[in-house]
Design brief:
Number of domains: 2
Largest sheet: 6 strands, parallel
Number of helices: 11
Number of strands: 11
Strand content: 15-25%
CATH topology of the largest domain: Rossmann fold
């Protein structure tokens, strides 16, 4: 394992389903001194939408926000700076931050494809190391390393787990075409299948806006969505109650979602629209069913066989510890 004892780490990343807490906690358990900064100046619904649609709209506010934070920190006080996504950080602010902490090793990790990460490609040359979860981006971009995402320890299968109360579970943000895909999946499941979807939207205002503007939500109702995000522990607890987990990636996405690896750790079966999963070393057709997002087909016998455990060393590689070892190598 990479020795991080007494290393000072500045972690800049989104506050998203508790992943920032999981990473910070794991780094601290390995002896690191971690300072966390959210990668957005505001968590309001308006700010999130504006950052995604037009980062330039939020740039003046975001630049002032980050300059104030970094100016309050002692100069050259970090051994590592790890930025995950960093969507609201302009090139100018990123350069200023690095100038303030010149001795730090600067690492950029992307858990979205370049196509879904506005401005990320233009920042690559600022970093000492760049890693991405997207195998195609890594292959096509010199100097960018491929490193899949991870699962947290809380998802590891519990000995003597109880009989599942849910046959198919989905937990995630209701982005892009997830709602209609999951609707079609529900219709394709064998009669009597117990289904629970936790489709999250940032607010009821977002729901009504998308209901009017996005034809993919034409057949949805407000009761189809949740407006309070689950914590990491709540998410993991739901996993333990399920037999199989559904996963719907963005159409532009080639890398595996966090969900895929959490399912692997929890020893649950996976129903996914991401055919790229077949290229990974843990793929087992007994455990993973790849479906067409437009015309899903779920054989009844998928539910008749239990999860088949694989090589423990492969499982370890996708753990948060394994991810940290690669990112800080």
């Amino acid at each position: 394992m990479v020795d991080l004892q007494n290393k000072k780490i500045l972690l800049v990343m989104p506050q998203f389903f508790g992943y920032e807490t999981q990473i910070s906690t794991k780094l601290r358990s390995r002896g690191a001194d971690v300072t966390f900064v959210g990668d957005r100046p505001s968590l309001s619904t308006f700010a999130k939408i504006a950052t995604r649609i037009s980062p330039g709209m939020m740039k003046p506010f975001a630049d002032r926000h980050f300059r104030s934070i970094f100016a309050s920190m002692a100069a050259d006080s970090f051994d590592y700076i790890l930025i995950i996504k960093g969507e609201s950080m302009s090139i100018a602010v990123t350069k200023e931050m690095f100038a303030r902490f010149p001795s730090a090793k600067k690492v950029f990790y992307l858990w979205d494809s370049f196509k879904n990460s506005k401005g990320a490609f233009s920042k690559l040359s600022l970093f000492d190391e760049v890693l991405t979860f997207d195998p195609v981006d890594a292959k096509q971009t010199p100097g960018v390393r491929f490193r899949p995402l991870f699962y947290a320890d809380s998802y590891l299968a519990s000995p003597g787990s109880t009989k599942p109360a849910i046959d198919v579970l989905f937990v995630g943000t209701a982005h892009t075409d997830r709602f209609p895909v999951l609707r079609k999946l529900r219709e394709a499941l064998p009669p009597g299948t117990r289904v629970y979807y936790y489709l999250f939207l940032a607010s009821k205002l977002v729901f009504w806006g998308r209901k009017v503007l996005d034809p993919r939500l034409k057949h949805s109702g407000i009761a189809d969505f949740k407006f309070v995000p689950l914590s990491g522990s709540e998410n993991a607890a739901l996993f333990q109650q399920a037999f199989a987990i559904a996963d719907v990636e963005r159409k532009v996405q080639r890398g595996l979602t966090m969900r895929t690896l959490e399912v692997l750790a929890a020893h649950k079966k996976l129903i996914t629209t991401n055919a790229q999963v077949r290229d990974y070393d843990f793929y087992d057709s007994n455990n993973i069913l790849v479906i067409d997002r437009n015309e899903p087909v779920v054989p009844a016998d998928f539910f008749n066989t239990d999860f088949r455990a694989g090589d423990p060393s492969i499982l370890q590689r996708y753990s948060l510890d394994g991810w940290i070892d690669d990112v800080f190598a």
